[in-house]
User: Which sequence fits this backbone?
């Protein structure tokens, strides 16, 4: 049976970043309520000086965890930085990876962009030797954009409320992180298509070696990420180099089940080399090439560059591949990776992910019932007769426009979350599933429970994100519930927390799911009929 196309547009993979920038900007320099001088912590590389905010939280920004991946080290695995003796300033963000939206470099009070982007940030209640749970954040933006310094993901409130250590890191993105070079380039480049993921592994090694000095427990590390960050979490669960570097995992709105093969990725990379005029195996020319020229030479993403048989979120463009070294198998196809079988997983998505990607589509908001039916028949012709009434029943009161985005959400995000949860549930460790159903009143309520709405709620950054979450007390109630659950999961591997109903682990019988709302509830097998239809479509 020919598998239907269950993909959503490539823009889905990176739009969380654009939303983040539009709503909250980025953290630049020292917060107004922070002291200009602060604590010094000795790391394995050397001493760093952070700052203390008005509530006594210690904040360290722009700590270098990797040597500059530039020149001859471009596209190669990351290296630890050279040690230093003088106290390094850790009060300002380090460079973020080169990406769309600006040029390399930046003013002294702005992180700017650079190939030299291997920096991380730490928020901690105290550098006192106490063994606090550690939460390592992997930012969204697909594999092409974003940073650990985006303001919406500021870890201060999470660290303060939960008495945890929060770490967020930058790593190489797009072509700089995921250009897979062919065998002509030699052994140094065998994992060039996984360089950005290997940066994350190096960052996790930094956490293992240094977080105790910041009051964290290297034996209790949770990785969590949203959108593209969720896909990074899924990939780390399948990377043997990451074994033992984390102990729990959270995937938010970004189930990553597969990746392109090394051959597919290398074929895509050859288009870039041709545009740059660099011959296969010419290491010196590649090292000399201008970074801006490399970035601009990226060929457009195409279906041919995406993994064959892709069913959920597409990964066109430069993304991690199954290189046979750093990643030796598809992350969650045909099953969950065995080496991480004992790592507990918290996984979920938002009820109306796709509305945010359609805000600029005037035709959508004037859609008719016939437009909705035509959309489903075009997207899933073999299942349309069943799926059209099932969607109407699952989303009563939805306009045709919102039914279209519901169809896109179900086939692009939600069903992938279900598949990943089911495959993980067949292993020993517990799986906990959630659905964010609370609808933001911002933007006249049009966006409902959209993609990335979970970010200010999980990080408990409601007040700085009012443009996204709207006015009133309700968003804070939801944020208190979600952040408490994430903190509890990081502490014990179980998200049950005060104020929530009992949250059972996910299994193939009940499929119990926490539905986050002003009053949260547990629901067995949500959208059961839609699940049945879409799972049949995947056979």
Assistant:
């Amino acid at each position: 049976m020919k598998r239907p196309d269950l993909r959503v547009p490539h823009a889905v993979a990176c739009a969380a970043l654009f939303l983040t920038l539009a709503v909250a900007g980025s953290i630049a320099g020292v917060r107004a309520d922070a002291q200009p001088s602060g604590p010094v912590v000795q790391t394995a590389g050397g001493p760093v000086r952070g700052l203390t905010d008005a509530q006594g939280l210690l904040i360290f920004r722009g700590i270098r965890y990797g040597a500059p991946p530039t020149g001859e080290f471009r596209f190669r695995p990351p290296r630890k930085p050279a040690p230093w003796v003088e106290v390094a300033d850790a009060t300002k963000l380090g460079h973020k990876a080169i990406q769309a939206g600006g040029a390399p470099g930046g003013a002294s009070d702005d992180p700017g962009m650079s190939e030299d982007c291997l920096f991380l940030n730490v928020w901690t209640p105290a550098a006192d030797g106490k063994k606090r749970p550690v939460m390592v954040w992997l930012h969204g933006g697909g594999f092409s954009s974003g940073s650990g310094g985006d303001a919406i993901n500021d870890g201060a409130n999470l660290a303060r409320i939960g008495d945890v250590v929060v770490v967020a890191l930058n790593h190489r993105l797009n072509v700089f992180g995921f250009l897979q070079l062919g065998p002509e380039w030699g052994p140094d480049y065998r994992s060039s298509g996984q360089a950005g993921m290997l940066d994350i592994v190096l960052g996790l090694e930094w956490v293992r070696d240094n977080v105790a000095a910041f009051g964290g427990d290297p034996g209790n590390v949770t990785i969590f990420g949203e959108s593209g960050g969720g896909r990074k979490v899924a990939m780390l669960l399948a990377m043997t180099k990451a074994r033992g570097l984390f102990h729990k995992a959270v995937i938010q709105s970004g189930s990553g089940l597969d990746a392109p093969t090394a051959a597919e990725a290398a074929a895509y990379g050859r288009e870039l080399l041709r545009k740059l005029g660099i011959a296969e195996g010419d290491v010196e020319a590649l090292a000399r090439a201008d970074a801006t020229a490399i970035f601009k030479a990226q060929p457009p993403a195409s279906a041919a560059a995406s993994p064959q048989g892709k069913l959920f979120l597409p990964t066109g463009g430069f993304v991690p591949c199954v290189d046979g070294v750093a990643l030796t198998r598809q992350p969650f196809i045909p099953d969950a990776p065995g080496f991480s079988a004992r790592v507990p997983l918290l996984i979920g998505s938002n009820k109306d992910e796709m509305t945010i990607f359609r805000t600029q589509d005037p035709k959508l908001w004037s859609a008719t019932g016939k437009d909705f039916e035509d959309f489903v028949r075009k997207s899933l012709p073999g299942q349309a007769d069943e799926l059209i009434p099932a969607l109407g029943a699952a989303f009563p009161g939805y306009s045709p426009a919102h039914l279209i985005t519901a169809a896109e959400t179900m086939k692009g995000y939600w069903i992938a979350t279900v598949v990943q949860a089911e495959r993980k549930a067949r292993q020993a460790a517990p799986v906990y599933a959630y659905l964010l159903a609370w609808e933001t009143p911002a933007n006249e309520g049009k966006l409902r429970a959209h993609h990335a709405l979970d970010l200010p709620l999980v990080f408990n950054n409601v007040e700085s994100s009012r443009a996204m979450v709207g006015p009133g007390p309700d968003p804070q109630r939801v944020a208190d519930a979600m952040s408490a659950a994430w903190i509890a999961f990081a502490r014990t591997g179980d998200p049950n927390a005060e104020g929530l109903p009992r949250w059972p682990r996910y299994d193939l019988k009940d499929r119990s799911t926490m539905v986050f709302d002003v009053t949260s509830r547990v629901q067995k097998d949500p959208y059961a009929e839609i699940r049945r239809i879409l799972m049949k479509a995947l056979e």
